[in-house]
């Protein structure tokens, strides 16, 4: 467990490229710019939105965009390096587990 999310409104959605794969670096999230599997270094993106549907769209965008998405929406990203980056604290959405390697990304 990397973090716990406190959700009082809105919805969360997670997109991961560690499932629905068919070879090294090949997965189901396709970058429309290249027609290839997204290669941004993001393995998993959990995103908050006003609705669950909005969060789902933003979670796909997070995998396609990479860490730069943190400038646009509340999200937590698991990177290929094993690092977890998030801006959920700014949105008052998380209780941080002290044992985690969570890194807060400044605004």
- Elements, N to C (H/E): EEEEEEEHEEEE
Structural class: mainly beta
Strand order of the largest sheet: 2-7-8-9-11
- How many DSSP-defined strands? 11
> From the alpha-carbon coordinates, what is the Rg to the nearest angstrom?
13 Å
Query: Helix share of residues?
Result: 10-25%
| Terminus-to-terminus distance | 24 Å
Average pLDDT rating = 83
Unreliable residue stretches: 98-107
By oligomeric state, this entry counts as single chain
Task: Explain the overall architecture.
By secondary structure, the chain is mainly beta. The chain is 13% helix and 36% strand. The chain has one helix and eleven strands. It has a five-stranded mixed β-sheet. A two-stranded antiparallel ribbon has the order 1-10. A two-stranded antiparallel ribbon has the order 3-4. β3 and β4 (26-27) form a beta hairpin. The longest helix has 14 residues, at 52-65.
In short:
It is built from 1 helix and 11 strands; from the N terminus they run βββββββαββββ.
Looking at this protein, list some descriptive labels.
mainly beta; globular; 1 helix; 107 residues; five-stranded mixed sheet
Helix and strand topology:
Blueprint: E1 3-5, E2 11-16, E3 21-23, E4 26-27, E5 30-31, E6 36-37, E7 42-49, H1 52-65, E8 75-79, E9 84-86, E10 94-96, E11 103-104
Parallel strand pairs: 9-11
Antiparallel strand pairs: 1-10, 2-7, 3-4, 5-6, 7-8, 8-9
